[in-house]
């Protein structure tokens, strides 16, 4: 298993990969931060910095890519051409936990919403972890902790590398144009990326979304969501509000 990038997600993936019996190699084109290098040394994980040794990387069974590395990078394209799976840390870590996941994304407000959701669950006495695009990586916590729930903040870059991962509760706050350079400057591609948070949802899961966001409403009309849809709004008052906010 090759890990491209040695940031928080990369180091967590390396530690989890080693714990699950993989032969792990970490490659970073830049200089690895001292705290992360120390962890790699302590865990006896092979690594390189300042370069990508192509023949080693393209010999991988699977590659876990940092969300900061675009799919358009030549090395990533070569890996895909060789049919080497290129996935995100979230996809990888999700294989090794049975914890329930509350996954939050949106162009704005996702960090605040994630922290608040985690705080509420923690204060309510739940055995809950905080991960994703915030705090210790999801993979590191799956390797070293035993939480029953995770609240995950997910960026579009993380969502792009997720295929079989499934949220139990998916929350999409809003969608406004952002990071369009990663999406061929097409807003519709960015919208589709955000909606990857709903992939693999079943009728037993929940999708919480903003009913005031016309972009979301339009997308959902063309792509029905299988989960129970729970809209929120500051403009509309309908049957769903009475059902969810007047329970005894």
Which helices and strands occur, and which strands form pairs?
Elements: E1 2-4, H1 8-19, E2 25-28, H2 34-42, E3 46-49, H3 54-57, E4 63-65, H4 74-81, E5 86-87, H5 89-94, E6 100-105, H6 110-123, E7 128-132, H7 138-144, E8 149-153, H8 156-160, E9 169-172, H9 187-194, E10 206-210, H10 214-222, E11 228-232, H11 239-245
Parallel strand pairs: 1-2, 1-4, 2-3, 4-5, 6-8, 6-9, 7-8, 9-10, 10-11
Helix pairs in contact: 1-7
Please report the distance between the alpha carbons of the first and last residues: 51 Å
Query: Count the helices. How many?
Result: 11
**Helix percentage:** 25-40%
Let me know the average pLDDT.
92
Largest sheet: 6 strands, parallel
Strand content: 15-25%
Q: From the alpha carbons, calculate the radius of gyration and give it in angstroms.
A: 19 Å
CATH superfamily of the largest domain: Mur-like, catalytic domain
CATH third-level topology of the largest domain: UDP-N-acetylmuramoyl-L-alanine:D-glutamate ligase
Anisotropy-based shape = globular
Under the CATH scheme, which architecture of the largest domain would be assigned?
A: 3-Layer(aba) Sandwich
Strand order in space, largest sheet:
7-8-6-9-10-11
Give the helix/strand class.
alpha/beta
Number of structural domains: 2
Number of beta-strand segments:
11
CATH domain class name of the largest domain: Alpha Beta
Low-confidence stretches: 241-248
Could you spell the SSE succession in H and E letters?
EHEHEHEHEHEHEHEHEHEHEH
